[in-house]
């Protein structure tokens, strides 16, 4: 066949080729994601994983930011370790997962969070904390049916919220006690520990306290659902949107809602619902999520999750400044800004309560606990084998975290 015959055929082939591409768009080139990256990731998360793969995220010693904040451990620390292990054994049947959760040393975290609490309150708070870690892992660990199916996840949230509402004694209709008994007898394994929480709080808190706790748990579960949707789609939001979602899904606010119970105080509702108290909560949550995210980023990326402050900040950097060092500076600035907001709120709360000596003491105890909460997260995150930061830490306290 001569060249004159071939030329029209080639043109025809090209036309067919481009027509097919218009109907079936070309997939991204294989090199968009390295072969060693997570094949299950999609969308922006897949591209971001390839960009971050093997890079080193450096952090200064963040204890320097919190050097003036208190850190202490509860004298029941060893007993708490045994309590946590027994709780995990009640609800975790997978031996590999059980071993990993025991290594996390949640008992140490409880000891740092509640250095002054007495044993009855510690039992309730520990049951809640272990429950929320296990409940959340079911959704975001990536190795369960719930974590890989949005419809199953939505059903999981709905059922969990219904159970929480019932076990907190918030159902006012006739036969509520019988419903609680039936609920306790037929619990999903992941909700078993919450029965202990509900029982303890029904006996030691008033309805307003439990309603506040429930509202924060509801927001937590809704936010976990939104976060899960982003994970499934591989979408990466703006930093502002991320902080809004993560402030709910990090699960700190329900813990703060237990504070007056843990301290055996009852602040007036005028204090609990005032603007400075809400600001104190907000900044406590923000500092907690920043610390949680920077220390867990290596673990989360290894589990194919890019929904973390570090990747989100990196993705949202301007092209000429898109480095992990830029992210580090952003993290430091965000922590310092949040701490300033916290201190301003603490000062305003102190002034509001200055006319009543008892309320003033209770407000200061609440503020001090929020500081313990943050330093506890910081210290535990550096120590816990859950995140492996001991292997990343230098003698000067700084960290080099390979992603």
Automatic annotation (TrEMBL):
Gene3D superfamilies: Farnesyl Diphosphate Synthase. Its cofactor is Mg(2+). Its EC number is 4.2.3.-. This is Terpene synthase. It comes from the Eukaryota. It is an enzyme of class 4 (lyase). One of its GO terms (biological process) is isoprenoid biosynthetic process. PANTHER family: BETA-PINACENE SYNTHASE-RELATED, TERPENE SYNTHASE. GO terms for molecular function: metal ion binding; terpene synthase activity. Belongs to the terpene synthase family. Keywords: Lyase, Magnesium, Metal-binding.
